[in-house]
Amino acid sequence: MESPKPVRILTVCTGNICRSPVAERLLQAGLDQVLPGGFEVRSAGTRAMVGYPIQPLSADIVNMYGGTDKGFAARQLTPKILRDTDIVLTMTSKHRGEVLQLDASLLKRTFTIREFARMLEALEERDAGASTAGDPAGASKGKAPDAGTLWRGLPARLAAVRHLALAADSADNEVVDPYKRSPEVYRQMEDELAPAILTILRYARLNTPT
Fold first, then answer.
1. Residue 52 burial by CB count (10 A; 0-12/13-18/19+): exposed, middle or buried?
2. How far is C-alpha 120 from the chain's CA centre?
3. Active-site annotation holds for 19
4. Interatomic CA distance for residues 67 and 173, integer angstroms
5. Across 49-187, where does the E strand assignment appear?
6. Which candidate in 8, 13, 25, 114 is catalytic?
7. Which of 67, 71, 84, 185 has the fewest Cβ atoms within 10 angstroms?
8. Rounded Cα–Cα distance for residues 16 and 20 (Å)
């Protein structure tokens, strides 16, 4: 029997050495705990420093949260990389636009990572509300027979709650670029990125069929 195709998630930033590698390695580590072999998380940069390793301060963040920076090498975002991707998570709105310039068909499957996390929370709240209101059918709409069905169907379900997850400020969709900046800016990046990653992993843990 053929193994199910893993859910493919791509994280995107500029150089692919600071932000998107942190998201890649931590999402992969967490999703491996939820469903080993069920997810394949990769990253790329819109102007990648091809072949470079993760920046040391980003590597520290990855290792602190239980991921690994070993074997990482930055790569350039290309249409070929995007072609096999189920969900694209970018670090900024500008990156999202650059993804769509390469492949407009990904419009409904590309999000900034902070926006995606807020939308997952809104979806959970809506489903919980439906259950409380005595609408078990509404609460069960997120149930799926397998991980692939759930995650590949997520963009369509998230579209229905986008209006509930709008950012109070456009900056709330962005993750700061710390490249060649102080350790304080790396901490700001962590403060903006880590909560989104944890929200995604919590959603996966509670909802992914195993």
1. middle
2. 11
3. yes
4. 24
5. 87-90, 110-112
6. 13
7. 71
8. 6
